[in-house]
Amino acid sequence: NTKIPTIHKDAYRTFRDNQENAMIRIYQGESPIAQDNTLLGEFVLNGIPPAPAGKECVDVTMEIDAMGVLNVKAMVKSTRGQQSLKVGEKRTGRMSQGTKQKLLLENQLVQIRNPFLLPTSKLDDQKFEFIFMLDVSGSMGGQPIELAKRTLLLFLHSLPENCYFNVITFRGNFTSFFPASVRYTQQNLEYAKIKVQELYGSGGTTLLAPLRYVYSQPQIEGYLTQIFTITDGHVSNRDEVLALVASQVKHSRSFSLGIGNGVDRNLVIGIAENAGGMYEFVTYNEMFETKILNQLKTALRPALLKPIRVQLQLQEGMNLIFEKYKQQNDMNLETEPAIGIDLGTTYSCVAIYAKGKVHIIPNGIGKNTTPSYVAFTKDGKENIGEPAKNRAYENPEDTIFDAKRIIGRRFNDINLQNDMKLWPFTVVDDFGVPKILAGGKKLHPEEISAKLLRELKKDAERYLQRDVKKAVITVPAYFTDGQRQATKDAGLMAGLEVLTVQTEPTAAAIAYKLQHSEGKDRNVLIFDLGGGTFDVAVLKMSKGKIEVLAVDGDTHLGGEDFDKNMMEYCAQEFKKKHKVDLFEGKDSANKQTKDEARRRLKRLQGECERKKIELATSIAAVVTVDRMHGRTDLSVSVTREMFNKLNENLFKKTIEVVDKALVAAKLQKSKIDDIVLVGGSTRIPKVQEMLGAHFGGKALDHYINPDEAVAYGAAMTAAYMNGTIAKNSMDFNKVQDVTPMSIGVEVYGGGFSVIIPKSTKVPVKLMERYKTAHNNQTSVQITIYQGEDKIAVHNQHLGDFYLNGIPPRAAELENIDVEMVINSQGILHVSAVSSSTGHKSVSIIENKFRMGSGAIQRFLDEVN
Ligand SMILES: Nc1ncnc2c1ncn2[C@@H]1O[C@H](COP(=O)(O)OP(=O)(O)OP(=O)(O)O)[C@@H](O)[C@H]1O
Ligand SMILES: [Mg+2]
């Protein structure tokens, strides 16, 4: 948020003795760890005169001119020798990776006074005491002690301002640099650096006595103590050391760093695990800086202590609000139209409730569903839907589909990586966010979805002969919070006010309920297998109410996967016969080869989908593509049996998901009254057969149209929320949804503490009470995950934020209440409150992988 043009200068020092040059790496972003940000460029500053570490100064100046161009200049102060880089130029581009690593390792700069690590804007009020315990026994002689010294220097240089610190070295006995921890001043730092240089290794190793000494020191009031132990070997009395560390957990957190191969791994791991910290192992010739900075990063972000159970269920209260909101809508009968949109992976459908019934709105060519395709033509036009799909093979690299398989995911998502191998268009990594190259631009998947939604909106406007602004858009039940948010953003960009994002099986259930209302209570299973996603929902339908008991699913399983298996089979057969690999060349650097290969694959995919559909009604089909490769035609016969075999594992998976949903709903199979099929892929005979057999030969419900049910239900919801339908005119007035996955926070030790369990009814507001883990902990990092694994990081990361301003007190004396609210749209808000001060920190999960409001606005400006 600095105004431009601007010019800023900062002073740095050399990190090593006789350092001749410095690697200047320029990053952009907000992470305290340089590498977590975006690398803008780098260059080497040569010609630093040989001098002891820290003696030579380098000024780094950054200037952004009025045009926004960044110019970085580094100058050796004593010689005034300088070097600069206009960002965008890649100065060290030709250097080998090895040379670069070496340069980085040896030629760092250390910032003067102003520590570069502390995320000052966030953890402004946490105060720390750092104690470093350094092994200087005989085994440390030579290489290890040199590495240990460098490590310690890096640690010392990275400490935050206003901390206290001390260094204690241990061998048979121990010594302390300062009699007690001292303030982190330039003078004390210089003194410590001199002391570090003097260290050498000799003698035995006892850690117990120095640790006892450290723990016996009075804690500095208001400061959180963090102890770092650096060792390369074994210590006597290991078990006692570990027991001692564990007993002191409230007084301090303990981190450990093991050097080399001879180290006692159990000691290093034990020290950290017994006291809430983390451990790392480093070897002599690796880039150890990241590991050390990671330890410090963790040390600077104290965690929450495991929860004690005080759960407040305020759901009823939320429901009342929800009801009231709906009533208000009912009163407003002068309504604008509100449509329901099923935004599918492969086909989309739009509907509206008007004049007492739901109308499925046909598209420009009279069809009820529209292919989810957007094509950018060579002459700068955009084709959407049917024309885009039909002509995909002409222009495959600029014909985009499957945006729903990309939206809300990260670039390194394993499913995305697999999909990319077959897509004829290119997806690139834009700092972790996947973007699509199309029409000469880099587009967010949200932008593709927005173009589709805009087209559906236009179809509705033509049908209704008036403007349409409001809509309900559906998403798979098993979409994560990020995927829902991104879909909502797409709606916004299509110029729509998104009344709610509704889950697809719930919408289908509404359609079912409205078409079959005998008034009896029924347990219904919705089986929705579409083009790209699979959802299962178990619902209870009773008079006036639809209640979702559980949902489960797979956001990456559907008709396209069956097409893909068929394509691979055909390619295999083709290769056997003609010795040509149809996939070859799809990633070629030669544009012509690449385009040809992709065009070929797209033609094959289209044909495979057609024959797959044919196999639903006949027992054999022949996949034929003229001039598949050069002059060679493809002709592969596929029987229904063969098709079933190719997809056997995927079909089985759908049944497993059904069972999981039943378990979550606490219902036995026999308790299901109706099984409702939704989604085009439920027309596959084998899928129906397996599902029926699984329920003991039960008949499946075919009454609702599998392609239109979702849009139908969404239209009803839209009418209901919009007030087009008066509340009492419907034969139900309440739809109760549930969360697809558990949501919680990471706690001390890396565990996952669930706050909103899987299958909780929404809207919901739940709170969990935590405690501070350590004495004098004044801030805490709240990290939010979604999933079912006990280890927090194994789940999907939704976002994080900090709570500052906790009064410094003894460990566990402060309560921290973390509250999570999921509104009726399934969108999550999290807040944390320190109980004694009422200090509050709120986060609507806005992670950096979402499109920013600026980007959304730019899109809107462009289309309008
Ligand atoms: N008779 C059929 N046999 C097999 N598959 C079919 C048949 N008819 C349609 N399909 C497949 O169904 C899929 C489209 O279904 P649908 O329109 O329900 O999905 P979607 O809404 O695009 O996707 P999703 O709901 O997963 O986002 C396509 O993969 C299509 O090939
Ligand atoms: Mg669908």
UniProtKB/TrEMBL annotation:
It comes from the Eukaryota. Keywords: ATP-binding, Nucleotide-binding, Stress response. GO terms for molecular function: ATP binding; ATP-dependent protein folding chaperone. Residues 129-308 form the VWFA domain. GO terms for cellular component: protein-containing complex. InterPro entries: ATPase_NBD, Heat_shock_70_CS, HSP70_peptide-bd_sf, Hsp_70_fam, VWF_A, vWFA_dom_sf. Belongs to the heat shock protein 70 family. PANTHER family: HEAT SHOCK PROTEIN 70KDA. This is Heat shock cognate 71 kDa protein. It comes from Orchesella cincta (Springtail).
